[in-house]
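User: Before I run my own analysis I want an independent prediction to cross-check against. Here's the chain; please return only the C-alpha cells and, at the end, one sentence I can use as a sanity check.
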Amino acid sequence: MGSLQGRDLLSLADLQSAEVQALLNLAHQLKKGESTGPDLRHKTLGLVFRKASTRTRVSFTVAMHQLGGHVIDLDPSVTQVSRGEPLEDTARVLDRYVDVLAIRTFAQSDLETFAHYCQIPIINALTDLEHPCQALADLLTIQENFGKLQGLTLTYVGDGNNVAHSLLLGCALVGMNVRVAAPNGFAPDREVVAKAKSIAQNSEAIVTDDPKLAAQSAHVLYTDVWASMGQEAEADDRIPIFQPFQLNADLLSLADPSAIVLHCLPAHRGEEITNDVIEGSQSRVWDQAENRLHVQKALLASIL
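Assistant: C-alpha cells:
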C-alpha cells in the first residue's frame, strides 16, 4: 500500500514528510474502521526482542493478527543467537522464513546488520539510538487532539534518549517545533539534532538545559524515564540531577492552556512525572499507548 512497500524503517530519517503523513492517515482510517488494510493471511512477522517489552510486543502481535497474518516470537535467549551464532548468519536464515522482522535491541549497528543481510523489511522496534514506532504513535495522538501537526510545539523534558531522538526527527518531518530540555551531559546526540534541523519543515529544533523556558506556551509536554533499559544501575544517581526536569503541575502551568501531556511508558510516578499530571485531564497517555497498535498496523500494511 504505497511507496513504503518492501522498505526498512531503521530511523524516522528514512521517511519523507509525505510518507509520515500517509502512515498517520492510514492509521487513523484503520482505527476508525474506514479501512481494513490488506489481507496478510499468508505473511509472517518475526519478533526479535533483546529488550523487555509490553506495548511494542503486544501492539505488533495484535496488529499482525488483525491484518490476518502470523507472528513468531524469536526470543534471542532461546535461539542460536544466545549461543554465539553471528547475526549475519541468523539474518540470512530468517530472511528465507519470514516476511518482515521487528527488532528491539541495544545497538543500532545490530539493526543495520540485519538490514544488510536481509531482503525482507526490517523495522526498528527500539534501539538505544531511536524509537521510531513510538514517535509515529505520538504524532497520531497529537494530530487527533489538535486536528493538525504543522506549527505546533512539542517540549520534551528529561533524558536526551532514543525517544527524544525520534521526536526530534518526527517533529521536524511534519513541521512541528520541538524543544528538548535536558540536564548538561544528558543532551540528545548532536548528529541527530543536526539531522533534525536539516530536515525541519519551516520549524525549529532546540536543545536547552532550561525546562521552564522550553515549556513556555508548548502544545505538548512529553517525558520519559530518567534511566532507560540498560542504565538501571545509574537510576538513583540520576534522580537529583533530573529533579528540576520533572513534569509536574508547575511545569504544565507554563504550557499553552490547551496543552496535552504524553509519556511513552512505563512511568515512574513521582520521578519524571507526578501522579496528578499523568492522571489529570490533560493527559493523553492512554490514547498514546493505544495508538501504538494503529500505527504499527498501518506500518505493516504499508511495507508488506
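Sanity check: The chain has two domains: 12-130+292-303, 134-289.
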